[in-house]
Amino acid sequence: MTLKSKIKPIIEDNTEKSGKWFDLVIQFFIVLSLLAFSIETLPDISVRLNNFLDNFELFTIVIFTIEYILRLWVSEKKLKFIFSFYALIDLFAILPFYLSFGIDLRSIRVFRLIRLFRVFKMLRFNRAIQNFGCALKSIKEELILYFILSSFLIFLSSIGIYYFENPAQPEIFKSIFHSMWWAIATLTTVGYGDIYPITAGGKIFTSLILLIGLGVVAVPTGLIASALSKTKDNKDN
Amino acid sequence: MTLKSKIKPIIEDNTEKSGKWFDLVIQFFIVLSLLAFSIETLPDISVRLNNFLDNFELFTIVIFTIEYILRLWVSEKKLKFIFSFYALIDLFAILPFYLSFGIDLRSIRVFRLIRLFRVFKMLRFNRAIQNFGCALKSIKEELILYFILSSFLIFLSSIGIYYFENPAQPEIFKSIFHSMWWAIATLTTVGYGDIYPITAGGKIFTSLILLIGLGVVAVPTGLIASALSKTKDNKDN
Amino acid sequence: MTLKSKIKPIIEDNTEKSGKWFDLVIQFFIVLSLLAFSIETLPDISVRLNNFLDNFELFTIVIFTIEYILRLWVSEKKLKFIFSFYALIDLFAILPFYLSFGIDLRSIRVFRLIRLFRVFKMLRFNRAIQNFGCALKSIKEELILYFILSSFLIFLSSIGIYYFENPAQPEIFKSIFHSMWWAIATLTTVGYGDIYPITAGGKIFTSLILLIGLGVVAVPTGLIASALSKTKDNKDN
Amino acid sequence: MTLKSKIKPIIEDNTEKSGKWFDLVIQFFIVLSLLAFSIETLPDISVRLNNFLDNFELFTIVIFTIEYILRLWVSEKKLKFIFSFYALIDLFAILPFYLSFGIDLRSIRVFRLIRLFRVFKMLRFNRAIQNFGCALKSIKEELILYFILSSFLIFLSSIGIYYFENPAQPEIFKSIFHSMWWAIATLTTVGYGDIYPITAGGKIFTSLILLIGLGVVAVPTGLIASALSKTKDNKDN
Lengths: 237, 237, 237, 237
What we know:
Four copies of one chain form a homotetramer. By secondary structure, chain A is mainly alpha-helical. Chain A has helices at 3-12, 17-40, 47-74, 78-82, 85-99, 118-122, 126-138, 140-165, 176-187, 200-236.
């Protein structure tokens, strides 16, 4: 039995204990490197901390490089592996460092987090994800219809508010695209307060749009609720 | 077989391949002309882009005019066609251009988007729309009741907050109509921040209204969810 | 057959045509008088409009007085009528005018709107209201539990944010009562923007509270949805 | 029969009338002491009120001390009682006063409110709490999955908005941690207005994130709704 055949199950299989540990260690370093990446964006960190983060960055790159080489080594079809979705993400996460580009592409590493979903296979989350998938699949057509209706409502709202508010606030409701930003912030009920109607007509129009908009927001909730309920019932029976 | 009988199915029928393509081309130009219309509202576009958009406008008007004439030509009952809902929208979308009114009525073209719903017939969306229709129909009475209750709550909130806030903020809570704008922005949880209570009484009143208001917002969600769930079950069985 | 026995069904019964019309006329004047009341709060109305509204006010008072006297006259048990809920509201709606109090109590008239619910008896809304009543009744215990949990969460949030934000913003997070206003505006996701955390601790605390809070907001929606769904099913079967 | 055996059921058992009264009196003082604690945080209270509140504080401490001693006295396993969850909270609520620490730890008393849940045993709330517990338990895996998905979405949004807005607003979108505060305030639709995108890219990114985010918010609502509905049905049948 070669070394390769010993290492292969540890890296590729996550049902065995050693494979689980390998996955957990890699995921732990992904989370740590993301945290380091976030801390580095803080504007007033000391030189010492910055140096430590740079060294830690180097350390994680080494680990991720070793991981990538190991995965490549144990894979049977090398070419198929290199162009697989996860392998490309892994490559993009380490490549920028070696190419010494001036641009900071480390944020791509976040896509490595997609790997965290593999964790679910280890745990007993299979059923939960399957239910989700089934539920969303069973209402696919309704969700598409909902997105078309929402886009329609947002576009109509933008045109409407533009005609009411542009003459009164030409600097804020500059164009229909600026009005779209208002429409989305309003219909999702975020309401930052950076853009809002001040004319009587604009306020009445907003009120009407909001009363309809609340119904629109209620639709996906209702859809997902009923789909999940039904999927769970089917699974349990 | 005349030319008319050849063109008729292409224009009126969208179950055949040629009819589908005719519909898609028209819808494509509707979306493009709406986009052009939105871009033209941008305050700082170059003269060159403006000229291009004006020419494109002319081009779409020509296409929509040809479409209208073709539809009129192939229709059996001319008068009935002219006064049909869609034909009137089509007419209003091109008429302003020919009348050279100073007023920009091109926004009416947005109603042509209603035609986009015909697309659903081509795709397999029938069931989704039917379910929606059935669900909304089955809770028609409840939705009317909900709108009456909401109006009642908004009006009561407006009067209440007017008494609490008008003495403290006479410029903001000017009248009950101004308070209604507050009531809608608050009960829909948008909360722009342009109008809010500052007195202790007004804040306590707002808190109570919000706790009840959240329940009111929950009602249509619950109604639509239960209606959709039931309609889907009935259809599937 | 006396005049009283002729008028009695018109006033007290709303299943007959004449009774329906009497109810609709009264309700029409209630809505009109409320509208007049709202318009009078506008700060810059002309003297002429003000005079008209004063006269209209006099006119509605006369109508509501006649209605009250008629109801009293046709009622069999006079004393029981006078102290009935609706009669007291009717009295409070006209009394202030006759007593010529300086205080404006006309807003009490809004409670006459409760009468609008009688309309539902005429229409076929019975089933909708009954379903609502049944649904809310069947989840009474859950709703009480939810209100206790919400109050608990709001109080805890207020104490928490007070400790985080009071030292940094002593003028805004003045006391736990001021923090409560923040807690309600935040957990209902209104977020006016008049009061929000600025410290790192306060922001982290708010984030945690919001993630829990969203679940709390989801509870009544879920409760009412499931209750309505079940009640409707029971009724339909 | 000793005094101890007489007092024991009053303190430990709340199914008998005397035990219910004992519980209610203690809970009444908890609520009062919390109210006093809240009032004391008001910045401009008179010296007289402050003195009264200090005396009331002393009074409640005495009552809670007597309660603690009584509970300790009647408990069979003293050591087990002292280290029980509720006894530790009771102790922490009175200890700071006796230790005369400068730090105000009276807020710990809020945890005594947990005792209010004992009240539910007296009332007929058992079923409501049990349903809640069962419902949450049956969707435990889905809720965990939802929290992972939410964290993932919040982190990705933070990184995205940081790249769009940091160059334009370096003082507001200072770091990824500051962006996280934005992500949470936005995805929960609170939208205080203290931090929001101003660049075109940031606004388009926010719009996309919000459309996905609304779906994420809909998930727990749907989950809890379907779980509650199913649990209730199972219980009732």
